[in-house]
Design brief:
This protein is mostly helical and about 100 residues long. It has four helices and no strands. It has a domain at about 10-65.
């Protein structure tokens, strides 16, 4: 569960606030360098095209945490649904194949 104070802050705002607490003021150039580094890391780690990774990183940095949490929850539910759907399709195919061979 997210702390109430973080729910509607963007990731970029949280990063800026944490840096300020440490006595560091982030410039736009700092953030652009961070975005470029994160994009490269994301692209390399997941084997995705740079432009797709850049869109993902920009989205994560600019969306409030609560919305990101909802999207992750939805992604998890869809993943579970796909998993069980594949199981059902395999079972139906197996039953159909066994019935056809009798």
């Amino acid at each position: 569960m997210l702390a109430a104070i973080l729910r509607w802050k963007t990731t970029a705002r949280i990063i800026t606030d944490v840096a300020a607490q440490c006595g560091v003021e982030l410039s736009r150039a700092d953030f652009q360098s961070f975005e470029a580094f994160e994009t490269e890391l994301h692209s390399t780690a997941l084997g995705r095209p740079q432009d797709r990774s850049k869109r993902h990183i920009n989205l994560v940095l600019r969306l409030p945490q609560q919305i990101i949490k909802y999207l992750q929850w939805g992604e998890h539910r869809l993943s579970s649904l796909r998993f069980y759907l594949v199981k059902v399709i395999r079972l139906v195919k197996r039953l159909y194949h066994e019935r056809g061979s009798q």
